[in-house]
Amino acid sequence: MPLPRRVHAVVVSVALLATGCFAASAHAATPDGAGPASAGCIQPGPTLRYLVVLDQGTTAPVADAVVAGACGTTLGYYPQIGVAVAVSADPGFVRKIGVNRAYSAQADGLSRRTGAPARKQDETPARSGTPDTRDRTAEQWDMDLIRAAEAHAISKGSRDVVVGVLDSGVDPTHPDLVRALDPALSAGCTTGVADPSRAAWSPTTSAHGTHVAGTIAAADDGVGTTGVAPDVRIAAVKVVDDAGFIYPEYAVCGFMWAAERGMTITNNSYFIDPWVFTCQNKTGQAVVYEAVRRAVEYAGKRGVLTVAAAGNGGVDLTRPGRDTQSPTNAATEDVKPRAVDNTCLVLPAQLRNVVAVSSVGADKVKAGYSSYGLGAVDVTAPGGDRRQQPGGGQPCVLSTVPAGYDYSCGTSMAAPHVSGVAALLASTHPEASAGELSRMLNAQAETLACPADYDLNGTGAQDAFCTGYSEYNGFYGHGMVDAKAAVQNVGGEGAPAVPGKQR
Questions:
Q1: Sorted alphabetically, which keywords does the UniProt record give (predicted)?
Q2: Number of domains in the chain
Q3: 319 inside domain
């Protein structure tokens, strides 16, 4: 699902695993700060899933022993980063293993909210479409804005480049995506452990991932829409569960899968639940931050460029003033302002070496819903805005959805434009590292200065404040990606370093 503005109470619906007692080992090693292994395990249930952060370099046998010693069972372990996914029916699992070592998004969700599940939404949600054999590229104002068609006259991308779509799954039968989608590189991660079966990575309750995939690589075949880089490959990496949430273990699994499978780029049109802002200095949240940080860093070292949506909250990401202690409910505005805490970040967008993407409408002005912030946003791309009508047409972005095509607005839609341009850059610079691709993205971007007047509602008051200068500011970062400039080698490996959080 999208990286949305919150339009729902964060209510967690979990498919509970069968409860069971996991015998503790009296001699199990325990991490620093954890108490000794319990002689007996309590099993009142429900069995919950936990993310466990261990010292880097911890071996798999030691990790298993640590988890077992706290009355849990290891579902999967990533020795490259020292992060495990475990389950336990013992309510004392976190205490036994260490409060700074383990966290359960399921447990947090169950304790905070009750009721039916509510799904995240973009500014306009993508739905399943109806079969359509028309050429609809004339409706793709977004592609005109980034000069995609002009780029295609030079390059449509290389089959050697793979973009991992970390999202809600990609329709494997869509005619515009069949050639691009590589089933052998696809997997479902909604247990925290990769499952390569087709059922695990195919979409179930959401069209969002298919929409994102089409923006990146829909075929240039004269039917339907055309993606930014129609000749590259994509992989469906499902990190969104059927309730529409992206728990941290899902994202960690997705990043690690992409890294181990040699993907070039990952597109991340979401933020990691259950908080909009994850704080590095809060119990539980610090575990999430560290696990995701390690996974993203590992992927980068393996050559994977991470692209992420900045979010639809319309907030300055450098001054998070929302309640970072609990999930938000933008529908009822039950979010109380808090003091600025710069240790609280949107994940993964605000992590180091992640390309964070804001959204503009057809007039190249920041969309009202798009979050922003000087030093937080790297580049911008078309995501649509109802206030900015493209020549009287649909203001949202048209792309593929299961069984057809549909429109959607959001930073979720902006991010895949950036991933597509990055894929073109990677195609023409096959030896470029993730850092070099990031620098080239910044260098080829079209400069967009701060607007002189950002009064979207006509009230006489500014709806947001853009800081910085023409070449680098809080609304647009280094500017809007330009596909033609990318394939013309504008700002190649020799481009000068520019400010931003990647440095």
A1: Hydrolase, Protease, Serine protease, Signal
A2: 1
A3: yes
Assigned domain for 5 exists: no
Clarify whether 27 is annotated catalytic: no
Round the CA-based radius of gyration of the chain to a whole number and report it.
22
Q: What are phi and psi of 472, to 5 degrees?
A: -160, 110
Amino acid found at 220: D
pLDDT digits (tens, 9 = 90+) for 385-430: 999 989 878 999 999 999 999 999 999 999 999 999 999 999 999 9
Q: Report how far residue 266's alpha carbon sits from residue 252's, in angstroms, rounded to the nearest whole number.
A: 12
Q: Is 167 a catalytic residue?
A: yes
Task: Kindly state whether residue 81 falls inside one of the protein's structural domains.
Answer: no
Q: What is the pTM of this model?
A: 0.86
**CA pair distance 72, 47, nearest whole angstrom:** 9
Give the CATH number of the domain where residue 317 resides. 3.40.50.200
Structure tokens, 277: 């802002």
Active site residue 470: no
- In the set 208, 211, 417, 478, the catalytic residue is 208
Domain containing 447 equals: 137-451
Q: Which residue among the candidates 90, 167, 220, 316 is catalytic per the annotation?
A: 167
Which residues sit opposite 344 in a β-bridge? 279
The tens digit of pLDDT for each residue in 71-128 reads 999 999 999 999 999 999 999 999 999 999 999 998 886 555 433 334 455 666 666 6
Nearest to 416 by CA among 376, 455, 381, 378: 381
In this predicted model, what pLDDT tens digit does every residue of 318-367 receive, in sequence order?
987 544 333 433 322 233 334 456 789 999 999 999 999 999 999 999 99
Residue 173 burial (C-beta neighbours within 10 Å; 0-12, 13-18, 19+): exposed
Query: Crossing angle for the helix pair 411-428 and 434-444, nearest 10 degrees?
Result: 110
Q: Which of 412, 419, 427, 438 is catalytic?
A: 412
